[in-house]
Structure formats: C-alpha cells, structure tokens
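User: Last request for today: this protein with inosine-5'-diphosphate, please.
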Amino acid sequence: MERTFIMIKPDGVQRGLIGDIISRFETKGFNLVGMKFMAVPRELAEKHYGVHKERPFFGGLVDFITSSPVVAMVWEGEGVVGSARTLIGATNPISSPPGTIRGDYGVTIGRNIIHGSDAIETAQTEIALWFSEGELASWESCAQGWIYE
Ligand code: IDP
Ligand code: MG
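Assistant: Here's the final one, the structure of the complex with inosine-5'-diphosphate:
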C-alpha cells in the first residue's frame, strides 16, 4: 500500500491546526502509520529540503522549520501521495483554493502550514529520513471494507 510523508510545519502547530489537519486525512479514509511531535535538528531540515539548497529561500526555510516543533507523520492508502497533495493545495496559499489546507489557513508561501511528499519515490526517501522502521505500525482499519471496494 502506498505511503506518504506529511509534516505539520511550525506555523501549523503554533496556530492550533494539528487536530484539524489530522482529521482531514483521517476522515478522507487514509491510515496513520507513524507520527511524532518533535523539534527538528538543523541537519535533518537541511537534508529534507536538500533539493532546494541553491535557492535564495533555503536558509530562511531551514531557520523556519527548526524554529518551533513540527508533527511528522506517515499516512497510508491508495493514491495517498497525490491525494495528500490535493488535500494540501498549492505551494503558495494565496492561490490555493478554499477547501485545501493551505487555501483555508495560509496567506504567504513562506508560511504554508504543511509539507507533503511530491512523488512516490520522494515519499520513500522522506519516510526513511524521518522514521525508523520500528516507529511505523502497519494495521488495517475496521472501516477498510467501507472505504475500498
Ligand atoms: P511544496 O511544499 O508545495 O512541495 P516546494 O517548491 O517543494 O513546495 O518548496 C518547499 C517549501 O519551500 C515550500 O513549501 C515553502 O515552505 C518554501 N518555499 C518555496 N518557495 C518559496 C519562496 O519563494 N519563498 C519562501 N519560501 C518558499
Ligand atoms: Mg516540495
């Protein structure tokens, strides 16, 4: 089953959005398989955003992610990588439609509430970066047969 890495960023935590965001993934029908509330070591933030290290916003982004705790999660389900990106919305919250997490709660690109892996391979890399195998729990929801045909 497909898995993705989701992180509620420091602004989402500070603004009291943890419950709402988790609820959106839960009620969609995805399964939570890993979750931790944590301060992010600078080295981890730099690795996670390594693809952007030449961009002008990189230093500010790493400062922001390490400024206050985050909620790191792994969610599982059919098509979860793409579906999570749809639930999250566009990178810039101001052009993200209502109903998306960024569209409902964000205004600027540097404070866009949440991260979600952009592809299946990226998800695998990010899950391995943030979680050890023992921190992930496989399980089947009792609602499985009511979510999937
Ligand atoms: P994504 O989070 O929608 O995948 P990416 O392009 O991968 O967007 O950028 C990663 C993160 O870097 C964004 O979520 C945002 O927090 C930050 N970011 C991207 N572009 C800018 C920018 O132009 N200014 C400030 N921060 C940016
Ligand atoms: Mg990205």
